[in-house]
Amino acid sequence: MQLYPLFPVLHPILKPTFPTCLWGGDCNSKAIALSFDDGPHPQHTPKLLKVLDRYQITANFFWLGACVNRSPSLAKEVCARGHWIGLHGYYHHNFPLLSPSELRDSLERTQAVIYDACELQPEQVRDVRPPNGLFTPLTLNLLQQWNYRSVMWSVVPEDWVRPGITTVVQRVLQHVKNGSIIVLHDGACGGEDVAEITNILIPQLLQQGYHFVTIDTLWQQTLKR
Asked: Which is the catalytic residue, given 41, 44, 83, 185?
């Protein structure tokens, strides 16, 4: 069962219900965030980096600690290019199924391997996107209590089920708007197509007048409202 049709319906319901999450940026600004989950991946991420380099785009990566641990030099390469780094847990485990201690350990372990690979201090890597977008009020309260920032999304083309490159591109272009957070995947699921999808999307989005920013920039926009 594909969930793509539900995401545009759920977003306007969830956004006001959970206002401490970042669901998007300023609706009056053409700034959007391009984000990638589940990496770094030794085959897919390097291809994606070449595309981002070609267009000189700064993107946002939400990493799994286990993947960073397997590819520390690749993680360092991503950081060296100035891309924004966030947390996706150590493994791709749904946060509500973890105990508070397991959740905290998962995030801290991921921060630790990112520090070892990239020398980014834990306080520099505190944006968290829950795997599969699944959370509860308790999850969000714990993240806030531990000084993490919860980051969600506004454009979810469900690329991980590989509906086809053209379909993913069309879905993004259909739903993107000012302040959008687009989520794609450069991990084991969906990452096979991510470089080609991104290579098609970026010039079309630039042509529409959008410019790409970091998740941190979107947070700063919310503080100014």
From this structure: 185
For residue 93, being part of any structural domain is answered with yes
Number of domains in the chain: 1
Active-site residue identified among 37, 127, 159, 186? 37
Q: pLDDT digits over 50-102, tens only? A: 999 999 999 999 999 999 999 999 999 999 999 999 999 999 999 999 999 99
3-class DSSP assignment, residue 151:
strand
Cis-peptide into 5, omega within 30 deg:
no
Residue 9 included in any domain: no
Q: Which residues pair with 151 in a beta bridge?
A: 22
Q: Is 41 a catalytic residue?
A: no
CATH code, domain with 169: 3.20.20.370
Tell me which residue has tokens 């529409």.
208
Structural domain harbouring 72: 34-223
Residue 136: inside a domain, yes or no?
yes
Q: Is the pLDDT of residue 1 over 60?
A: no
Residues 156-174 pLDDT 10s: 999 999 999 999 999 999 9
Tokens 């206002």, residue? 19
The pTM of this model reads 0.96
Whether cis (ω within 30° of 0) applies to the bond prior to 40 is yes
Question: Does residue 165 fall inside a structural domain?
Answer: yes
